[in-house]
Amino acid sequence: MSEALQTPRTLLGPEDPEPVGLIDRGDASPFVLICDHAGNAVPKALGGLGLPQAELDRHIGIDIGILGVSERLAEQLGASLVFQRYSRLVVECNRRVTSPDSIALVSDGTIVPANADLAPDQRAERIDEIAAPYHRQIVAILDRRAEAGLPTILVSMHSFTPSLRARPFQRPWQIGLCYANDKRFTIPVLEALGQEAGLVIGSNEPYSVDLVKDYSIPVHGEERGLPYVEFEIRQDLIGETAGQEEWAARLGRVLPAAHRDFTVSAA
What we know:
alpha/beta; seven-stranded mixed β-sheet; Aminopeptidase
C-alpha cells in the first residue's frame, strides 16, 4: 500500500496484518474486483473480540471461501483485486458508519463482547485504521481508471451461509446477484448464468443492496455511476479448493460473456 494511503495507527500494532490486500494487475481488464469480507483477522489489542476462534471462523466472521474464488477469478480475468483482511466483526466494511451494525453487538445469535459499550474514539480507531484504508485503495484504482478514460465494471465478491442459526432455513440458491437501482450489468450476468447447467440462481437473494445502510456498491458503484455486479456464492460450495476453482472458472466464463452483451447493448 502506498504511503499516501497510510493512516496513523493507535489500534493496529506491528504484529497485526495490513488491513488492505491488493493484487494490482494494471488496467487492461475492464473488471475491478473487491472483497469486503475476505479475512477474519482481529487486532491483537482486541483479544479476539472475546470470542473463541470457532466463532470467528463462522460466516459471521468471514465470507468463507470467497477469497480463494476471488483470487483465481481475478487471475483469469487479468483484473485487479482489493480485499479486506480483518473480520467484519471488528468493523463491517460494507456498512456506512451511521448504520447500527457497522460494529455488531450480536451477529446470527452470537454476542460479541468486545463490541459492547465502545467509546467514540474506539469506534473511530476501527473505522480509520481498517475500513477507511480499504475504501481509499478502491477509490485510488477507480480514480486511476477514470482519469485514463477507461470503462470499468465493478465486481463485488461475497459468500453466504446455507442456513442462519438465528433463523434456520435451507437457502436453495447456489449463487445470488444483489443490486439496487442500476441493473445494467446485472441483467446480462443473470442471462449468462442462466446458460450454465443446473444452477439455482437468486435475484436479490439471499440479500439485496441497501442504499442507506450498505457502503461498497452504493458508494463505489451507484454514486459513481459505474456498472457493477455483486455476487453471493453459497459457502458449502466453495469451502474447499476444488469448489473455489470450479466457481472461479464458471464466473470466468460468465463475466466476459456478459461484458460482450453489455458492450453491444450499450453501443
